[in-house]
Amino acid sequence: MDEVEVKEFTQRASQLRSEGRLEESMLAARHATTHGPEDANAWWQLALTLRRLDDDGRALSALERVTELAPHFAAGWYELGLVYEAFGQLDDAIAKYEMALTADSEHAPSMRMLARALKDDKSASATQRRLELLRALWDAKELPDNALFDFAYLLADQGEPAHAARMYETYTCRLDGKAAYFNLALTYKKLGRDADALDAFDMALFIGFEDDNLPRLSNDVHGKLRALADKIARNPEPLLAEDEWYQHYVNPFALLDADTVEDLRNQPKALQKARQAVLREIELEDGHLAWMPGLVLDKSTALSRLDELNDPDVWDAHQVVFEDKALCSFLSRGELDHFLGRADPSVPPVMPYQLDETTLRVLGPVFAAQYNRVLTRAIEKGNVDAVECLFKGRRWVAPEHAEHCFEGARRVLERLAAPLVTLDDAADGRTVGLDEIQRVLAAGSLSSLLPHLPMEFHATHNAVGGALRGLAVSHFGREHDAPQALEILKLAKVCANKLPALAHLVDADEKTLNDMIAEERSKEASITVGRARLQVTRAGVSHGDSQLSPGSIVGVRWGMTKTSNAPPTMRYTICFQGRNGGDILGIWTKVGNLDEQRSQWSKLIDAAFHFVMASVLGWFAEQIEHGHQMRVGSVDVDRDGVTMDEKGWIFTSRTTVPWHQLTSQLVNGSLVLGSLSKPKASADLPLETTWNAVVLHLYASKKE
User: Fold this and answer.
1) What is the pLDDT of residue 268?
2) Is omega for the bond preceding 567 within 30 degrees of 0, making it cis?
3) Are 655 and 646 in contact (CB under 8 A)?
4) CA 389 to CA 452: how far, in whole Å?
5) Going by fewer Cβ within 10 Å, which terminus of the chain is more open, N or C?
6) Which residues on neighbouring strands pair with residue 560, listed in sequence order?
7) Mutual orientation of helices 312-322 and 357-380 as an angle, nearest 10°?
C-alpha cells in the first residue's frame, strides 16, 4: 500500500468517526497504521477513535506513538495527558500538558487542564504556574467562566487585590456566586473600599450566603464608615462653594419638585403642568427656584434639562438618582453621604459595576466630572477625612470614564509632591535631614493624604516614594548615619505598599541599613560605673542622667593604673569633656578579675574611637586652623606647632617645636613629645589625666 492509500484510509477513519460509525472508523485507522506505521496522522485518527470508544488502554499506546512521530503536535500531548489523568496518574498527566505547551505555548485546552491539574498542589511554584496559566487564558479570552473564581482567589492570595476585585466582579455578573460576593467584599476591604465592601457583604447576605464571620465583618466595616461619617460631620465647611453647586448635574425630577416619579410617568398632563410651574418660577424669581437653593438657570437651560425625560432610558437613569437622595446630593452639591452608608438596608444594594450600560452612559460622565471636582477640592483644602471618604468606593462610572475621576486630584498632588522631588535633587549637594523632609511632607497634608491614595495614584506614589528612597540613600552617603537613613526610608513604605516594584527596592534598602545598624551596634560598649550604666554609642556618651552627643564632646582622656599589687588592684579611667560643661567621668577601681575588666575598658575605648573621636579630632583641628591656641596638659598647641619645656644646664625655657620637627609617641600610658632639632625639648603627658593627649597625638600624626 502506498502513501496515497494510507492517506485515504486515514481520511476515511476521520469521516466514519464524525458519522458515529466508530467500529468501522477503528478498522480503517488500524489499516492505515499497519501499512503506514510512520504516519503520525494515522495513529492520531486511531487514538481519537479509541478515545471515543472509551478504550483508553489502547488509545494510550497510539498516543505515545503520535507524540513520538510528531513531538511538536500539541494536541497529541494534550490527549495523552487526558488519558494519564483518567488513569489517575496525575504527575504524568501534568508532564504531558507541559509538553503540549512546550510545543505550543498558546494551546488553550492544555492550559486549562494543566491549571486544573495543579489545583491541589499548594507549593509556591505550582501556585505561581497556575496563576500564570489562568492569566494567559484570561488575556487570550479563553478562560471559562467557572475558572474565574479560582483566578480571582489566586490573584487576591498573591497580592493583586485590584485585579482580583475585577475578576470577582466579572464572575458575579456571569454566574450566581454567593461566595464570590463574600470574597469580593474581603478584597474591597483590603483595597480600602469600605463602602463597596459593605455593599458586597450585604449582597452576600441578601442572596443567602452563610458564614459565621459575615455579620461581624459587615458590622466592622459599617462601624468604620459610621466613625468616618461622625468625623466629617464635625467639619461643617462644605467642600464646594454654593456657586459650584449644580455645575455638572441637575436632576429633572428635582427640578420639577416632584413628590414621586410615578406621579409623572405616563401622565403627560401632570408632567406638562409641572414643567410650566418651573418656567413660571424661573421667570418670576430671576432664575431661582425656592425648592432648589443655590441653583440659578434660565428657561432655555431648564427646558433642555427637562427634555431629557423624553428618552425613556434617560428617564429611568434620572429616576434612579432622584430616588437615591444621597447620590442626588452628591451629584448636585458635592455632599458625601453617598459614600458613607446605605439609606435603606432592607433592599439589595446597588453594585455600580452591575449597572446597565444605559444608566452608566447617562450618569457616568457627570459622576466622573463631579467626583473629580469634589476630590480636587478636598485635596486642595487638606481635608483628609473627605479624601478618605471619597476613596471608599461607590463610583458610578463605566471603565472608560474612570480616569476622569482623578484628573484634577493628580495635578494637585503633583504640585504637592514637587518640593519633595526638588529636595531629593538638592540632597546631591547638601545634607537633608529627617526634620526637613517631614516639614515638606506635612505641607499641604501630603503625608496624611498618602496612606489613603489608591493604586490609581501610582504616579504620585512613585514620585514621592522614589524621592524618599533617594533622600535616604543620599543621607547615608553623606553622613554614614544608618539609623537616620532608615527613618527616612521608612517614610517611603506608605508608597511602597501600593507599588510592588518600589516595595522590592525599599525592602532591600531596609535590610542593608538594618544590617549596618546591627554591625554598628556591635561596636557599642557599656559598663556599670558606680550605680549607673556608662554607655558609648552612636548617640554619644551617657552615664545615668548625663548625656553628651558626639558633637558636644571636645575632650577625651583614658588610662589604666595599677594601684596595688596585693591584692592586684587597677584603676580604670575613661572620661569625656563637654563643650558647655557636664563632663562625664568614668573612673572605677577593680580588685581581681583584671582580664575581664581590661576587656570591657578596651571595648569602651574602641567604641569611643568609632563613635566619638572623629568629631573631637575635627573640633580640635578646626580650633587650631582658625588660629586658636589649645592647652593640652603642659603644652600649648597652635597653628605654628607645640610649645613645650626645653631644659638647659641651669634654667628651663619654653620653646615652640614646628609641626614638621615634632616627634610624638605613646609610651607606657603617656604621650611623649619631642623635637628632631632640639633634643632637650620634651613633654610627657599621661593619657589618663590629660585631656586630649591622645587627640594631640592623632593630630600630630596627620601633620607629619
Assistant:
1) 87
2) yes
3) yes
4) 9
5) C
6) 572
7) 40
